Q: What sequence folds into this?
C-alpha cells in the first residue's frame, strides 16, 4: 500500500511519481490516495472504495455539524458501518451487498430508532457518491426503514408519560439548594427551553419579562470546551414571555447577581463568566430528584413537562408551538399527540356533563310540556 508513516509519526502517500506528506491520520492519507487514483485515467481501480467514500462524506458533513453530533455519528460509522462492510469499489457494490449489511444491522441489539439512523446514514453515502463520484445506480434504493416492535411501541408510550405534574415539580425544586440551579430548573419547567438554550442565556437576553432566544450551547466543542452556536432552527429564534411570577423570580436573581463586583450584562445567567456544565446540572437534578422521591426525568423532559401541562389545560396549540420554537404546528401535534388526545377526552367528558339533561325525561327539551 502506498500509504506510510514517517519517523515523526506523520502519514504520507507515495503514488507513482508523486509524494505527499504531512497527513495527521491514516484516514486522511488514504483519502488523498483515493483521489489520486480517481484522477488517474490509467488506474483501473479509479472508482473510489466504499470506506474511502465514507471518509470523504464525513469530511464534508463535519463542517455542517456541531462537534457533539459529528462525534455521535463518527462512532457508529466506524464501529458499525465500516466494521461490517468491505472497502469495495463503489461501482461494484450490489443490491445483495447492501441487503447483507441491512440484515446484519437488523440482528444487532439496538433500538429501531438507532438502527434507522444508521441505515439513513448508510444510504446517504451512496447519494454522496452519485453527486461527487458519478455513481449511476443507487444499490440501497430497495432498503426500507425498520419497523418498531410492539415492545418498543409500548416502551415509547410509557416514555411519553415521563413528565412532572406541578406538584411533583414543587417537591423537586424544594430539594434544590443552590440558587442558580433552582432558577435554572424553574425556567426549564415554566419556560419550556431546551437545555442548550438555557445554558447560553446572558443577562442581555432578559428584559421586559421576556427571554430572547437567539443562540444555544453545544454540549461539547472540538477543543474540549463549550461552543455557542445558532439555535436548532430559524423557528427556535423567539421570545418567551415568562409571566409575572417567573419574571419576578428572575428579576430578584438578577438583583443579587448585579451586586457582585464586575457584573456585566454579558454574563451568562447561569454560570456568570462561563456557562454551567450540563454534567453538573444533571448531577444536581438527579440528587434533588432522589431526595424528593419523584420519578426521574431527563433535562429535556422538563420541556416536555411544560408543554404537556399547557396542552393538558387546553392551551392554544399554535401558541404552544411558537413558545417551544417548533418549525410547525404539525411537529407539535406529532410530539404531543397523546396529551392532546387526553385533553380531547376530557373535553368530551365536559360535553357529557353539560348535555346530561338530554337524557333526563323531566328536564329534556324533547319532553312534552
A:
Amino acid at each position: 500500500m502506498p500509504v506510510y508513516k514517517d519517523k515523526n509519526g506523520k502519514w504520507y502517500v507515495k503514488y507513482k511519481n508523486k509524494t505527499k506528506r504531512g497527513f495527521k491520520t491514516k484516514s486522511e492519507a488514504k483519502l488523498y490516495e483515493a483521489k489520486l487514483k480517481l484522477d488517474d485515467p490509467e488506474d483501473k481501480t479509479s472508482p473510489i472504495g466504499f470506506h474511502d467514500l465514507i471518509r470523504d462524506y464525513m469530511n464534508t458533513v463535519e463542517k455542517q455539524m456541531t462537534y457533539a453530533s459529528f462525534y455521535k455519528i463518527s462512532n457508529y460509522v466506524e464501529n458499525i458501518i465500516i466494521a461490517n462492510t468491505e472497502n469495495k469499489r463503489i461501482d461494484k457494490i450490489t443490491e445483495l451487498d447492501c441487503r447483507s449489511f441491512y440484515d446484519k444491522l437488523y440482528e444487532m441489539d439496538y433500538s429501531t430508532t438507532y438502527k434507522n439512523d444508521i441505515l439513513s446514514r448508510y444510504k446517504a453515502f451512496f447519494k454522496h457518491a452519485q453527486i461527487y463520484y458519478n455513481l449511476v445506480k443507487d444499490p440501497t434504493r430497495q432498503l426500507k426503514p425498520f419497523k418498531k416492535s410492539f415492545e418498543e411501541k409500548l416502551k415509547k408510550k410509557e416514555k411519553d408519560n415521563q413528565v412532572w405534574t406541578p406538584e411533583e415539580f414543587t417537591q423537586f425544586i424544594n430539594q434544590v439548594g443552590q440558587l442558580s440551579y433552582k432558577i435554572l430548573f424553574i425556567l426549564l419547567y415554566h419556560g419550556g427551553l431546551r437545555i442548550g438554550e438555557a445554558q447560553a442565556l446572558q443577562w442581555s437576553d432578559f428584559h421586559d419579562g421576556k427571554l430572547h432566544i437567539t443562540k444555544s450551547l453545544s454540549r461539547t466543542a472540538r477543543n474540549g470546551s463549550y461552543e455557542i452556536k445558532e439555535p436548532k432552527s430559524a423557528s427556535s429564534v423567539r421570545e418567551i414571555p415568562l409571566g409575572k411570577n417567573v419574571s419576578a423570580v428572575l428579576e430578584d436573581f438578577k438583583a443579587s447577581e448585579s451586586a457582585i463586583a464586575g457584573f456585566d450584562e454579558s454574563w451568562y445567567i447561569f454560570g456568570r463568566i462561563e456557562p454551567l456544565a450540563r454534567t453538573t446540572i444533571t448531577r444536581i437534578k438527579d440528587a434533588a430528584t432522589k431526595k424528593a422521591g419523584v420519578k426521574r426525568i431527563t433535562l429535556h423532559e422538563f420541556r416536555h413537562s411544560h408543554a404537556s401541562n399547557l396542552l393538558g389545560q387546553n392551551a392554544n396549540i399554535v401558541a404552544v408551538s411558537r413558545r417551544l420554537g417548533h418549525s410547525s404546528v404539525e411537529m407539535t401535534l406529532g410530539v404531543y399527540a397523546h396529551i392532546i388526545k387526553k385533553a380531547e377526552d376530557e373535553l368530551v367528558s365536559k360535553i357529557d356533563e353539560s348535555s346530561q339533561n338530554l337524557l333526563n325525561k323531566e328536564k329534556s327539551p324533547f319532553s312534552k310540556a
User: Anything to note?
Assistant: Strands lie at 3-5, 11-15, 18-23, 206-207, 210-213, 216-218, 227-229, 238-241. The chain has two domains: 3-149, 166-351.
